[in-house]
Amino acid sequence: MVTQVERDDGTWYACEDCGFMLEDREDAERHEEHCDAEEPTYIQ
């Protein structure tokens, strides 16, 4: 499930499995469908 997150610069949508955040809800839902539930390797 995608969660809505309010930030200073607007609304973001986060993947509940890995925490990846996107500005577009549809993109976040599409990401979550293919998410392997691990933190993305590019987040440090």
UniProtKB/TrEMBL annotation:
Pfam families: DUF7128. InterPro entries: DUF7128. Residues 1-44 form the DUF7128 domain. This is DUF7128 domain-containing protein. It comes from Halomarina ordinaria.
